[in-house]
Fold these 2 entries.
Entry 1:
Amino acid sequence: MTKISMKVNGKEVSGEVEGRTLLVSFLRDTLGMTGTHVGCDTSQCGACVVHVDGAAVKSCTMLAMEAEGAEVATIEGQANADGTLSVVQQAFQDHHGLQCGFCTPGMVMSATALLKDNPKPSEAEIRHYLEGNICRCTGYHNIVKAILAASGQLEGAIAAE
Amino acid sequence: MPKDSGIGASSKRREDVRFLTGAGNYTDDINIRGQAYVYFLRSDIAHGKINKIDTSDAEAMPGVVRIFTGKDFEGVGGLPCGWQVTDRHGQPMQEPPHPVLAQGKVRHVGDPIAAVVADSAAQARDAAEAIVVDIEELPAVIDMKSALKDGAPKVHDDLTSNLCYDWGFVEDNREAVDKAIKDAAHVTTLELKNNRLVANPMEPRVAVGDFERGTGNSTLYTTSQNPHVIRLLMGAFVLGIPEHKLRVVAPDVGGGFGTKIFHYAEEAFCTFAAKAINRPVKWTASRSEAFISDAHGRDHVTKIELALDKDNNFTAIRTETYANMGAYLSTFAPSVPTWLHGTLMAGNYKTPLIYVNVKAVFTNTVPVDAYRGAGRPEATYQLERVIDMAARELGVDPIALRRQNFITEFPYATPVAVEYDTGDYHATMDKLEQIADIAGFAARRKASEAKGRLRGLGINCYIEACGIAPSNLVGQLGARAGLYESATVRVNATGGLVVMTGSHSHGQGHETAFPQVIAEMIGIDESMVEIVHGDTANTPMGMGTYGSRSIAVGGSAMVRATEKIINKCKKIAAHLMEASEADIELKNGAFSVAGTDKSVAWGDVCLAAYVPHNYPLEDIEPGLEETAFYDPANFTYPSGAYACEVEVDPDTGRVTIERMMAADDFGNLINPMIVSGQVHGGLAQGIGQALLENCVYDENGQLLSASYMDYAMPRAGDVPSFEIDHSACTPCTHNPLGVKGCGEAGAIGSPPAVVNAVIDALNSGGKKVAHIDMPMSPARVWAAMQG
């Protein structure tokens, strides 16, 4: 077991991990931060997306030890300081961009990363960017709509309901 | 103006806030002090005789608490089947035992052989690798028709064959149907496969068993759509735990789509093992494990014949279907190809004679059971494909052929034993034609052709049956369960309400939609109503959520319980205002005396019920809590018309969905935003079935498509934004809300639309392509174009 330390959502954290411990297991099992989810074992579904030093990363593809000293952001840290939802989170609620909620943490983290890099993505760019995030409930329609709304360009972007 | 609250309002979902902030409580988020972890050693061959299981090395591994095998479950019941089908000759289906852990034989890849319980999940997995299993491999049967041949290896040695049942429906129609087909002016025949799918809710299954030594009570936390059903099946049939000593909790559940209805071995194991080792036991499926242990869906092979007279009226339908049951009977498997499929074969059309034959077959594959739509997509797909093919053969317009044969008078008794209460199939088709801009299709096709692409338009209709009921009828059909739903409405002294429902939400938004109904009935704010579900300890016995039944059956139970509350409140209000009960009216959250300005607020009446100082104690009890159990008079029958436009790249065979359109009749809507979301999700699953998803077994029974690397889930780039409408609405006549259910429609209506569109595209390019089986991968489409 090795002791590792990192910043998660701005707070210093540390814990003992095995060499094989994944970052997602460190978050969920060691820190008890269960907002980040595991939906597959082949790095396909994206339910586990977090930000590591500002980049969107599937936390099931990264060893916890690799995040030593990093700044990690998770779904638990996305809301505003006053407890209100972030622009992306609020858009997901306003446009029914989630149903069962299981893929949602990864979707929100991916969408947030997308808008940081590309503040006004087209519908096609959003769909392409989300290829690493699988949702089984929404058919993606309202996720795309929520991201367009969060980027302030919903009007006229989607022809009809 | 759209409403901003109550029935018909698109209220934002209150559950979203916890899901969006990482504060959901899914089963894998539950950890109990002292818990151990189980890893299941599963068969990696499809069929074999277990000679010996040597666990001695594994038992000595670090952290191992105990290793269980089939021997430990010899005194325990098998997993029960909840539906007994009677065959054409009046005989019950063949029903083999389904042990919790394999006993003597393994029958599919994934069949659990041993269970290692250890201090950590990693230790359990490590130790499982040290178990030595000596299995004598036996020939496997994978293909259904081969499994029925004389001398085929038997999945279950004690059965007479691999035939579960040979079902005929309606058997009395058989000769008349044969004659009508013989005498028909035209018969269109189509053989097709309804591809095997994996439901793939994004949350894999999880179970946590707990045993409380002090009380002798067991608790199971599980990813279930119906915790009461699990409690009954597991308690009564598997482990012999009386229901009052067993609690089953299904907390936030990350999608179900049918595959979380069933009672699984892992649930029984964790409950059993927690007591055996006196520690909580947790199991979390990996996705790879889900592929070989979650019940699969569909997998029908069908021949359908449609007979028409000289004026193109449908005169008869005859079908023969082989339905894969897999290696064991999953909880509701026998009902899917029979009562959820044969009864839907009339579709939207007045075909006078129908005969459906279904042979259900055991094979060395994962058990198959209900997946979103369950039987109804299979019925719709074959019917709407054969109609499209008939239109092409006869050179008539596929919409006109459908319209000519629509059922137009309701109620309508079909020749397959059901009675549609309402519907207006022309109205949904009218809506669809508007959305689809059929007149503009020729120009769109030209534009595609200018880019070197073929463009096709596919149209179809569907009918669905939701809220399967009534219980006394389904009992005659072989159901071993009731199909009512329950609700307890508890009004607090200060006027807030808690509704404990037997329905279960795993994405459907009950916590938002159900309060809209109650708020409207009483005239209070939705925020005054809280929904409790998913825990047998604090909800009345209910049957859970599947088959698009929540609002039609669970919602009706809630309405009935609320009506009881309102009636009692009127008695209290009459007493408080010294008026006659008959004169009391409830409006906008206040009780008033008709024709006067006397009024008492909702909250004051509630308080009087719990502080009964000035109260008619001689007539009614204090308190405000009522329960209702609602058993519907009939199914509900949502219907609709769907359209799809595709482009096909003739060089690669790749299909892209350019437009996907749906016009549905769901009866009255509670929350249109949620309804739209349900349709969107169904459409994507239907597109997935039509173009991408497929469960592939090799001839030895190895599942080749057992991960997201190999099983093509629809992704955001595979589907378009959808164009949908649900304004052509005919309310259900036999439930208090006039609702029909909307959960499965999208997945039922969309696959034939996509296939019809691709066939249309290919034929527009001059190729005579009659049919391509799903999934229409580029390779299949390209190959069809070379023919």
Entry 2:
Amino acid sequence: MTPKRPSDENVDAWLDEALGELGRTPVGAPSDDLMSRVLGDAMSEMPAPGGPAPLRSALRQILQGLGGWPALGGLAAAAATGFIVGLGALGTSADAMAWPFGYDALYQDQSGLDAFGWDFEEG
Amino acid sequence: MDMPLDMDAQTEDAVLLARFARGDASAARTLTLRLVPRAFAQAMRLLGDQAAAEDVAQEAMLRLWRVAPEWRDGEAKVTTWLYRVVANLCMDRLRKRPKAPAALDDVADPADPAPSAEAQLQTQARNDAVRRALADLPERQRLAVVLRHFEGASNPQIAEQLGISTEAVESLTARGKRALAKALKGQVAALGYEG
């Protein structure tokens, strides 16, 4: 017997039935051949043991680019040491403190290119 | 093929995928056991063709293996990602299929009191028509409809899978079904309805 065409009123129920029937279609288990093929693909695509772990965030990528937390710690310690050494050098060297105030211009005006600074420094 | 049972039943898919990306073969076996039956079942329902469904499941898993090293933990569930890939691969195939009616020879002889060959043909035609109409839906509408009717997922579950609100799921499902009804209305003859 040919079923009746779904009307506009019951089309929703008809669709539910059609989709439900499709969803209930027995599908069985995947074949052993498929499982073997998938596993074969996995083995051929698998990175070497110990390969890189998946990245989690942009910050982590940057951190890994720098060499990780130990490298970042070393970088911070080196920067702090350099800053302290720089401060100490400024405090103990009058010459070094003078350069930022234009002493270099005087040095070049009074000495020729070939003077090597000896005439100026030796008087 | 003999494979061990899922020894990592409590381990999340994303963790296993990360282990695979570091060269752990046992993680690949576990993921294969866990995900291939789901991918295959989904493809079978959408395509109704064993060989095509197996090809789709294999292709989807191949894409998963390839994306594993770049997988970002927390961005998406592995099952959701796979579900989308399988759905899209199936829809690509459905769109390319010729729209030939099912032939009587394609229907296996029924054993009594199973439905007649004519009834089976009609069911097959209806299923094919519904599959094609699904293929023409926008992706999110299609996923919402398929998750609801094929997987029996609730609105909150679909919302979680698609990363949208429950209200948006209701809207997507309603629009999807309206579009399906419109697409199928013109095919009453092919579907075997009278009147």
